Amino acid sequence: MDPNTLLVIMAVFVCISAIALLIQAGLLFGIYKASRGMQANAERLTPKIEALLETSRVTIEQSRKQITEITSRTTEILDSTKRQLARVEEFVDDATSRARVQMDRAEMVLDDTMNRAQDTVAVVQHGIMKPLREIQGVASGLRTAFQYLAKGNRPHPSAVTADEEMFI
Q1: CA dist., res. 141 & res. 105, Å (int)
Q2: How do the domains of the chain map onto residue ranges?
Q3: DSSP 8-class letter at 2
Q4: pLDDT grade for 76, boundaries at 50, 70 and 90
């Protein structure tokens, strides 16, 4: 290759390199401007973000306090509920035991009443009804004897023939 051609090629490549460097410088300048713009935006937003962070901190602290209060109140309510449930359980147990005692007493009274009723029925049967039956039997016998004596010794002829016909 000719030295002039080589110099021309080198000059062209140096120019291309210079143009590339200028483009890179322009891009770097653009990046610089963009970062300055973003920095300005960030600086404008920084007080707002700090205020938001402070408000968030205050809100979180208040929430912690409220959660602590709610937790303590819930614990108190649960303790109170446990105590009241224990009282209700004692009351129910007491009422149950009393009801059992009353049921046992009622059963004893009912058994005693039934035994007395049976004894009374037995006394009535043996003390009143038996003598009444005996008296009724004696009265029936006397009535039959009076009827027999009132008829006389002779049987009526139709009765005698009816009796004889039965045996024939």
Answers
A1: 52
A2: 3-149
A3: -
A4: very high
